[in-house]
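CORE FACILITY INTAKE
Project code: CF-77B
Contact: R.S. (postdoc)
Sample description: multi-component assembly, two entities in total
Requested service: structural model of the whole complex
Turnaround: standard
Below are the sequence entries exactly as provided by the requester. Do not edit them.
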Amino acid sequence: MTSPFLPYSHAPELSLDQCIKCNICVSACPVAAVEDYFPGPKYAGPQAARFRHKNQNTPDRSVDYCSGCRVCNMVCPNGVKIAEMNARARGDIVRQGNVPLIQRLRNNLIARTELLGNLAQPIFPLSNILLSNPVIRGITEATLGIAKDAYFPPFARQRFSRWWSKRFKSQQKIIRVHPRSSASKIVFFHGCATEYYEPRVGRAAIHILEANGFEVIIPPQNCCGLPLLSNGEFKAARRYHENNVRKLLPYAREGIPIVGTSTSCTLTLKEEAPELLDMHDKDSRMVAENTYDFNEFLLLLHTASELVTEHLRPIPFRMAYHQPCQYRAHRIGSPALEIMQLIPELEIIEGHADCCGIAGTYGYKKEKYEISMNVGQPLFDFVLDVGGPLVVCDSETCRWQIVHGTGTPSIHPVELLAASYGYESEGALANVLNGNLPTSM
Amino acid sequence: MRSINTEVLVIGGGATGTGILRDLAMRGFDAVLVEARDLTHGTTGRFHGLLHSGGRYALKDPQAAKECIEENTILRRIMPHCIEDVGGFFVVTPWDEPEYADSFLAGCRVAEIPIEEISIDQMLADEPLLNPEISRCFRVPDGAADSFAAAHANVASAREYGAKVRTYHEVTGLISDSSQQTSNVQQPASKVIGALCHDLVNDDQVAIHADLVINAAGAWVGKIGASAGVEIAIRPGKGTMVAVSQRIVNTVINRCKMPADGDILVPAHTVAVMGTTDEQVPDPDSFAIEPWEVQLMLKEGEKIIPGFKEMRMLRAWAGVRPLYQETKTNASRDIARSYVLLDHEERDGVSGMITITSGKWTTYRKMAEAAVDLVCEKMDTKRECRTHLEYLPNIEHTTHQITAETQRAQRKYSSNKPSRSWCLRGSNLGERLSKIETERTYGQLICECELATCADIERAINEDNAKTLDDIRRDVRLGMGPCQGGFCTMRAAGILHQGAVDGDQWSVEQTNVSLRDFLEERWKGVLPVLWGKQLHQERLNELIYINVLNVEHLPGPKASPLAAQPYSLSPSHPPSPLPRPALSQDEGLREGKGAWGVRGEGTIVIGAGLAGLTAAWQSAQQGGRTKIIAKGWGATHWASGCIDVLGYHAHKRAENPKKGIQNLITENPQHPYALIGLEKLADALTAFQELCQASGYPLHGSLEQNWMLPTAVGAIRPTCLAPETMIAGDLRSKEPMVIIGFEGYHDFFPHYAAANLEAQGYTVRAVIIDPSSLRSRKRVDTMILARLFDQEDFRAEVADEIKPHLKDVNRVGFPAVLGLKNPLEVLRDLESRLGCKVFEMPGLPPSVPGIRLHNILLSAIQKAGGRVENGMEVLAYSNERGAAKNCISTVWTESAARRTPHNATKFVLATGGFLGDGIKSSFAGYVQESVFNLPVHNLTSQDNWLQREFFHDQGHSIFTTGISVDNNFCPVDQDGKIMFNNLAIIGSALGYGDFIRERCLEGIAIASGYIAGKSIGAK
């Protein structure tokens, strides 16, 4: 028996009661604007939901075109959980076996980032060659339906967790610029992107936390399960979330905050997984309540005057910033922007484009690649218009999509703060800073 | 007077009457059925739709239980397309006697009702919303019946066998041989020979002569009998039901106890119906839905499904059961039966008539069989009943000209089950969705809630001969979803008009009156459940039909004779409880650590409608740190995109808003305009005009004179400031025009608009164009068109299509879709291509002109350094940091996994009134501002909240409720004492006027937002 009683407010479908059919979501949906096969959030969500029932097999074709960007939720004046309804409808399609086998195989391949990383990262030179080889990509598109033009980031030479454990073992001296009386502990949730592709983001985050006097703990952890959730693979996603809750719970119980630089991972721990999977148990809730987006946490410190803001080094550049939809979905305002505004001489131009289009794994699918690029076009135009050396964005898949759509390298906001704190930058930011700043710095 | 002869006349088009008609026809009788309104208009169309397994009667009435299960089995066989096999549960809740369950089980076994006890885990797995405290659960073969489809299927079958049906034929009296006249005779007639009818559609008298009359008029049999001097004692028993806006259960849920009020929950199509009460009423034609009945449904529903009373109720309705009381001893033919069959020759010495009444929907076929058996006896002939042996036809198929022969052959009952496609309105929940999804016809939807497409509606008009929107509704469930006709009424009227124009003579007034009738009919059913979300929905519907489209001022009578009769006025509400205590200030404040954003300095504006955006723009402009926090976007996206300052005053169109406001202020000194004053209003409008001008989207007009602009249905709409894209439509000029529609675009019907304008004395033509770039699209909606008009290629294509139609006109009207990015450029480009003036006509949301205003303000705020955060609902407020008394320091918003604090020194509340959900109401009658729990004023007693008519002249008093403020827009309590020093209330939350009906939504919003923003930003 897996169906505990759901309090009225919990099941997203019940929120359709709040819908007054006003079409605001339809007017804002970036996918409906470019794709004829997607009739829009109102139809796919609160309207179709009145005709769905879990024991009834419905050929629900169009809802699969929802990218899950949640723009609809954000503009809805009535709090209808449209994106969640759509995600759960997709879950039903999968559960009822209405996804063609090849497509399901493909979805599972691109949605299992942890598995993919574990297999492909150790052989990264080969993996990277294969992923960028047009012939291979042509074949995977033809056979599996993975869009041949979609951008896969290169695997890192060394995993983040490997780096961490080495560093931990070598007892590298922790630089403490903040004179905290007693070291506060903090848990860092790195997520798959930092682990396999961009360990530099994790390193920057750790530098910042340590600079603020925290003792960083990185417990064993799994993929947050979001890619699986957004592909309707709820059963597998549930396993991941259960594992994460189990592994993070001891810290949450002690009141140790859990922070993450991947906005979608933290959102999944906070809300997506419990809500989509009906996991409203006490443990899940405790982990959720102790999880923070990285900048959300920094801003909390700052408001309490506990964030180190002295002696920040200037970064005299103008850069475009895109707040990802998954970040807006936290509904916490724009903490990353406020933190970046602390950095002297840095000029951040905020864009107001809705979505980059990639929506996690959406843009990697052959049938959705073009939609994803069309959705992202206004953002690409904005980035090229601002024309800085770098684009700043909180979410990894959005960063990669921006790189793909504009050719401009993209970084996480924490990389900027870490650089301003004086840590040595890596990757694109290092190139920019080294090329333009006096070498003495 | 026309005269008709037949062998048997059936009075009553409910389940029994239609069942009898079919049985008669199948046994070879020549039969005619008359119904006062449309089929199922009586009790058959107003019950909960339960196909009984018999379980409900297992102990109370074993005979009825046995009949139910027998008929249940037969109906499932002969009309699978009218029955959804959902099954039923009998559940023992903590409120039910546990002992009943065992005798219930035994009773079911005796009646041979298949029954099985299931575990509570199994029950919750099937129906997760059920009360987990339920102790026992039994599964029985209940079902959900579509009584409307069933009646139509019976009629379709009867017609194939030669029977005739006359709807909208009201029996005014029986004809007896003694008088040859209708009679309200006291003297009993010796023989009834027919009935006299009033044909409501053609307003004509029709006499129908018959060898035998079957009185199957349900609760009305007494009234019919009385006209032949026959006394039939019917005590109408009213039953009230409410429908929940979604199908919260997929199984019929019965309480396992002796049948009583409010113990059944039935899934029916997309809703779940909670029923019923049982109240004797004196007259089947006049009864009320009383508040206690609705309250009882909520209370009992809560026992079955926790959270039930917080759910959105869609509608309530009441039907009357015909409860028979025999006045003559031993006169009822078969007392053992659960229905009543009266042979009046035997009983009263009146030949030529029999009466059948009482009973249940489930046993209608058996009742028909018994009645027709008696007919055979009377006619001295022996013909076997075969109604249980043949399938009932599918209406869709009969209209699709399959030969009667093959069809009958197909339908002959055999062991083969009918195929799935043999279904009518979808015998299972997902069928409509499947159809739309498979055919990808989502772009053709007219009623979006119930998934009725354009083709469905055209078929109802062309093949089922629907004459009114209500007829269409019964055919395709038009307007039966949550918005209750909010969006589809206008669309269906457009189609009805176009369809009718193609056919016979039809005036636009007929369409208009049908549209108004339909809105009134929907209002009738929502009226008993208007609180909370449904009241919010109705306010949006008012905005659309009264404010934007102005349909009440379309030509034609206000209502037609076919209009639905509202329920009687209900007796008083129970006295309202005390206002709900304010939310505890500590509630949910788990994050005690600090607050976001504007750290202690600056202004937070709550709400992003026109008022909030204007206030934030002004505040930021003045240099104040400003942030908007909004749950979502506001009414800009729904309204016309014009700036209405005052359109109607004292039931008259205001030509001069300035003068109108002067009068308004004198008459109603509490109106927000009195506070704002004409001078500041003019300043605010000028500033707003300057902003729009600078943004390349000029607004024209002045306070001295209103524009008279055409709406999307061709009504004349007064407004003060209009964008340049609309002013060429001004109807103070009689210049001829052509109105353009787009093939496949269902939010705008140019022929309907043109006909209305013509009826008002203008020279107008309508053209529907079909540009090739739209043809391949699955859907053409407002946003798609607006984005296409931003593209030059599309404009060129459209202009080429229109050019041949421009003879003798010098202006061209479009739906309001002429571009989002640079509408002025779109306008100029079209004008130069067409060589004449171009204008937009605002219609259904989303409003492109409104979105333009929203975007202009959004970028003005951002340019001035303000921020706009949406998707964040303010849930609570607090007063921290030892701030001054009567000051707010922090508001808390809902965010993922926790609440997020936002500090500021000044706050502006711009969450709107009922339309913006800034003021909330509950069934219990409390009304409150939704963020700060401010008390509202100008609230009448709940009995007077709403009028019985949607379009009532006076409007609905509840909507004039608002928050009282002082001269600085600070909220004050009843004694005029300031409640919060650093809070300003602006926009529709101000109340003391019905801004939608007065057409001053935008004027109030901009003026109050401007004043508050300016003064706060400056300080």
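Facility notes:
- Residues 789 and 795 of chain B are 6 Å apart (CA to CA).
- The two ends of chain B are 81 Å apart (CA to CA).
Invoice: internal transfer
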